[in-house]
Protein: ABC transporter ATP-binding protein
Organism: Nocardiopsis suaedae
Amino acid sequence: MHPHTEPADAAPRPQDPQEPALRASGLVKRYGDGPAAVTAVAGVDLAFARGGFTAVMGPSGSGKSTLMHLLAGLDTPTAGRVTVEGHDLAALGDRELTAFRRERIGFVFQAFNLLPALTAEENVLLPLRLSGRRPDRALFDEVVGSLGLGDRLGHRPGQLSGGQQQRVAVARALLTRPAVVFADEPTGALDVATGRELLGHLRQACDRLGRTVVMVTHDPVAATYADRAVLMSDGALHGTLDAPTADGVVAAMARAEGVR
Ligand SMILES: Nc1ncnc2c1ncn2[C@@H]1O[C@H](COP(=O)(O)OP(=O)(O)OP(=O)(O)O)[C@@H](O)[C@H]1O
């Protein structure tokens, strides 16, 4: 469906089940030219195993959002490559990339990004509708049930609490069975308890549905829901923590701040 233009030995094979859900190779993003140029991402190599949950952390301005936008195909790198299940994003034209994002990538943003005129159910089903795909009713029932949205499906976003809106956004991100779900500060607009609940739902998306989750967060406790925390500093990877603890993340963040 997405033919590779490069020789087989230079590119991973798209259908290879061993290929990670997501891979960044030599990823660089530079803004501007000359002395005013800013290198937001300075050569990142990172693989994201299928079904894993990664928290991307680091000081303000360290390049987390830029990295996430590159990984999600929302921005194009200055150098390097992003592959999603072996598909090189650079090999896709604009329209193919838009379709690929809609079908293979799920997004959960801080500002929910639900359409106010649509009901919760219509919001959840929108990406599938735009792709001309039929909803999988069993998956719909499982996701909506486990997110506790069953009695809210007819409500519009304005009639839902922040936590409920965010759960609608999670359901929408899961219904397409995406290769990767990106969450950008998903608990930023929520109170602590509601935020923790939301993190539990992202965890379950990995454990029960086998989804791959990449979450940008400033919150060391949020990172404990992940299998791995990667720390950015000045656009580069500063370190990786497996099975992160809040204390471990705080200490590693302090070291990352120290090298700036
Ligand atoms: N469109 C742009 N044009 C110029 N510079 C940019 C642009 N976007 C980001 N930058 C710069 O790139 C660097 C990394 O920014 P980025 O937003 O990725 O950091 P971040 O770690 O997500 O920060 P925060 O935690 O504050 O959201 C910063 O120095 C920022 O000013």
